[in-house]
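Need Multidrug transporter's 3D structure for a figure. Predict it.
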Amino acid sequence: MNSLKRYAVAAVLVLSASAAHAQIDSVDESPSAAAMAFDFAVVRPLGLVATVGGIALFIAQLPFALIQGEPPSEPARRFVVEPAAYTFSRPLGELE
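Structure prediction for Multidrug transporter:
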C-alpha cells in the first residue's frame, strides 16, 4: 500500500510539472490595457512635444552646422527622426 502512494505522488508531480510547462509556453506578452492607456494619454503627447522641440533645436543648430561644413544628417536623426519614430511608429503600449 505504501508503494502505491509513492507511485500516485510521483504521477501527480509529473503531471503537474507538464501542466506548468504548458502554461509557460502560452504566456501572453502583449501590453496590458493600463499600459496602452498610459502610453496613449501620457507618453504619446510627451513624445509629440519632444518631436516639436527637436525640430526647433535642429533648426536652431542648422546654421552653425552648415558654417562648420558638417552634414546635418546626424543632428536631424537625433533631434527629429528618433523622437518622431518613438511617438508615431511604435506599437501602442510598448514603452521600450
